[in-house]
Design goal:
By secondary structure, this protein is an alpha+beta fold. The protein has a domain of about 80 residues: 2-Layer Sandwich (Alpha-Beta Plaits). It has a 4-stranded antiparallel beta sheet. The longest helix has 16 residues.
Length: about 120
């Protein structure tokens, strides 16, 4: 019985040693995302960053929500990684809303789309 309890205790200790420190950060980008191609560019490049576990984007809210392993990458370095694919990212304060700019998007197959 004592051996079983000791074995279970050691297993629990081992499992907690492998637990990931998953965090979430919500950012907005400059330039803003204009279309599905803009979203795909962000997702395609960001998923390559070591430590990124998941990405959700919203054109309407102009947000990128990133789940990441804080043991592999810091929030600061994650935000800096946007520069690698020609975007700047800024962490949003809780409840902060982003005003969507009126602009033309030239990303979608060379066709210009104006969005509001």
């Amino acid at each position: 019985m004592k051996k079983s309890i000791l074995a279970i205790g050691l297993c629990l200790l081992a499992v907690t040693g492998y637990a990931k420190d998953i965090k979430t950060v919500v950012v907005t980008t400059t330039p803003q995302m204009h279309c599905a191609n803009c979203e795909n560019r962000v997702k395609t490049n960001l998923i390559k960053v070591n430590g990124v576990e998941g990405i959700t984007t919203s054109l309407v809210a102009q947000t990128v929500t990133v789940k990441y392993d804080a043991d592999k990458i810091s929030e600061e370095n994650l935000i800096k990684s946007f520069q690698d694919f020609k975007y700047e990212a800024r962490k949003l304060k809780e409840g902060e809303k982003v005003v969507r700019e009126k602009h033309e998007c030239k990303e979608e197959q060379g066709v210009v789309y104006e969005t509001e």
